[in-house]
Specification:
Elements (H helix, E strand, L loop, with lengths): L10 H4 L3 H13 L3 H20 L6 H26 L7 H17 L4 H25 L4 H20 L9 H8 L1 E2 L2 E2 H19 L1 H11 L1 H6 L4 H27 L10 H11 L11 H20 L4 H23 L2 H4 L1
Helix pairs in contact: 3-14, 3-15, 4-9, 4-12, 4-13, 4-14, 5-6, 5-7, 5-12, 6-7, 6-12, 8-12, 9-10, 10-12, 13-14, 14-15
Length: about 350
């Protein structure tokens, strides 16, 4: 006779844990935060390695210097996030920054007050963005073709306005953006965080943010549903122009000069940061936190490689490897959302 204590134990007594495990894995793979999490983990490992190899990596001065260019690229990336979320692309972002910077230089050259210099740069950025928005949103032209053409146009305008030279001698009130700090944190970085918070509210809690995601998911369905597609796209590209204008001001303040090519490289960096954060390039999804993770990842890795005395061409290659590995790992773990659903 078998005693109760020696009776065989079946899985049914406690419930089969396999379905629970499978459900958890499916939720993980469907999570919007998976790829930013992978990127954060990779960057954390890199920070530990860089801090071990270089004593300057964790210094307060290094992070203060890092925060300023990160803020400038971050502003452009926030605008690019909206553009990509609505299913578009903006290849003219860097050229728009150049136009804004040259406009600030011209205004300073004519002894305009600081606020007028800043307003002129912002107006230049807004006009560039509105030009793209008019052609893409109202006239329904291809975003990649329009912004490719406007990139060449804006670059030519900036070169023509500056005669191919640079501007200097900016007033101290404008350079304040580079010098000011609060509790050791650059004001430029705090300004960027404030803009990011406003953008997050726009994206998540406003009807306009809902329109952006809906248009990126299915533009034809959004149009037939009565959504203001043209007006929304116009607003998206105008917002991108405004943020590029802000970036131009901050670049001028940090470098104390203005040139037509000041925004060179920011466009590719912004697109890569948004994609690195996990946003689909086809649109229909966006996250401010994920975009911030993407921007921070690029600049932290580049800063660490610089402190490790890695040659510039190797820095580019390793940064590209980070982008590819993070995207591949995120997609591998997440899998195909359509298949899982």
């Amino acid at each position: 006779m078998t005693s109760p204590s020696s009776a065989p134990v079946s899985l049914e007594q406690f419930g089969n844990p396999a379905p629970k495990f499978i459900n958890r894995m499916m939720k993980l793979r469907l999570s919007e935060n998976l790829q930013p999490g992978v990127v954060t983990l990779l960057v954390l490992f890199f920070c530990i390695y860089a801090g071990y190899r270089s004593g300057d990596f964790w210094s307060a001065l290094n992070w203060q210097l890092l925060a300023q260019p990160l803020s400038e690229a971050g502003l452009v990336s926030l605008g690019m996030m909206f553009v990509i979320a609505c299913g578009g692309i903006d290849l003219s972002a860097g050229a728009t920054v150049g136009v804004a910077a040259v406009t600030a230089g011209i205004a300073a050259h004519h002894n305009f007050p600081v606020r007028a210099i800043e307003a002129a740069a912002l107006a230049a950025g807004i006009l560039c963005g509105a030009f793209n928005g008019l052609l893409i949103g109202v006239l329904r032209l291809s975003s990649i073709l329009v912004t490719l053409g406007s990139m060449i146009l804006f670059s030519g305008i900036a070169l023509a306005l500056s005669n191919g030279s640079s501007f200097a001698g900016f007033p101290g009130g404008l350079l304040w953006w580079n010098d000011a700090a609060l509790f050791g944190i650059p004001v430029e970085f705090l300004f960027f965080l404030a803009i990011a918070a406003v953008v997050a509210v726009l994206l998540r809690y406003t009807l306009w943010g809902h329109y952006v995601i809906a248009i990126g998911s299915n533009r034809v369905a959004a149009r037939y549903s009565g959504y203001p597609v043209a007006l929304t796209l116009f607003g998206v590209y105008t917002l991108e122009g405004l943020l590029c204008g802000m970036t131009g001001i901050l670049l001028v303040a940090r470098l104390a000069s203005a040139r037509a090519d000041m925004g060179q490289g920011l466009m590719l960096m912004a697109i890569a940061a948004v994609v690195l954060g996990g946003a689909p390039i086809a649109g229909g999804s966006a996250s401010v936190i994920a975009t911030l993770v993407g921007v921070a990842a690029f600049y932290i890795v580049q800063d660490g490689l610089l402190l490790l005395d890695v040659p510039p061409f190797v820095q580019r290659a390793l940064t590209s490897v980070l982008l590819l590995v993070a995207i591949a790992a995120g997609n591998l773990l997440r899998g195909s959302r359509k298949d899982l659903r």
